[in-house]
Amino acid sequence: MKTRTIGDVTVSAIGLGGMPLSIEGRPDEKQGIATIHAALEQGITLIDTADAYHQPGTHEVGHNELLVAKAVASFHGDTSDVLVATKGGHLRPEAGSWAQNGDPAYLKEAARASAKRLGVDAVGLYQFHRPDPAVPYADSVGALAELLDEGVIRMAGISNATVAQIREANEVLDGRLVSVQNQYSPAFTSSEEELVACDEMGIAFLPWSPLGGITNAADLGSRHAVFAEIANARRITPQVLTLAWELAKSELVIPIPGSTRPQTIMNSATATTIKLSSDEVQRLDAAVAG
Fold it and tell me: Would the N or C end of the chain have less CB density within 10 A of its end CB?
């Protein structure tokens, strides 16, 4: 498995997004753990989670963190190089709704709760999940700075951020911002500017929903003809091609596709073996730009 870097930590070039394993329509726990184990067996060492990855309601907060912790602990191989990245500040209080809480005190409490659920002394990578309009951004990110200083978290990142927020966060963190997790896929390229900014600043960029989202990933080829055409020519799936295209965008891009089945994440992992030509990348870029 090819590797990339987040801060001073080396991780696999493809990560596993844990959200589909815990929200509505999720598989049973046995299949969820098997999927995480399959990712680890493929050499995937980055697992993305969040305290908000659960079915709506407060009683399930942290469901995915607990699942990830159980899967890592029960894996038959060495997991010392596995980086579990989690997030706080986004809430699922009830069906059909999301909410934000960027209050510094809340974020510090949430980070400690995440560490407890993950069974670690310090969270490997903790990310502010989504800006809260009711709280100054610098105040929310300032909580991450305090968590770093206190040793509650080892690295700090942000999610769903603009270029201005990336620069502000890095300033508040005294240059210690190591990751930005934004939505990015052939269907959603609005974060291209943030991807470029991260490349310039040496910050890892983690595309979430890199295949277009849970409901659209299977139809990626029919939605994007050029992706299907090049994938067919290479005898790979449009999904694998898409991940290879994202990897080609920058050495700091680490896609985190979600999966509910072992075979799906095993297929995604093969993207790291695909090297696209400059012509192919240009054609794919032009297709999404059009």
Answer: C
Look up residue 39 and give its two tokens.
Answer: 């990712």
Q: Is the pTM above the cut of 0.85?
A: yes
Say if residue 14's pLDDT is above 90. yes
As a whole number of Å, the end-to-end CA separation of the chain is 33
pLDDT range class, residue 58, cuts 50, 70, 90: confident
The domain containing residue 15 runs over which residues?
A: 3-216+249-268
Looking at the DSSP bridge assignments, the partners of residue 10 are 5
Domain of 53: which CATH number?
A: 3.20.20.100
130 within domain boundaries: yes
Which has the closest alpha carbon to 63: 21, 124, 112, 107?
21
Say if 232 falls within a structural domain: no
pLDDT of residue 57: 84
Element (H, E) at 181: strand 177-181
Is there a domain that residue 281 lies in?
no
Total domains in the chain come to: 1
User: 53 catalytic, yes or no?
Assistant: yes
- Helix (H, G, I), strand (E, B), or coil: what is residue 173? coil
CB 189 within 8 A of CB 288: yes
Write down the residue that tokens 């993207």 correspond to.
Answer: 271
171: in domain:
yes
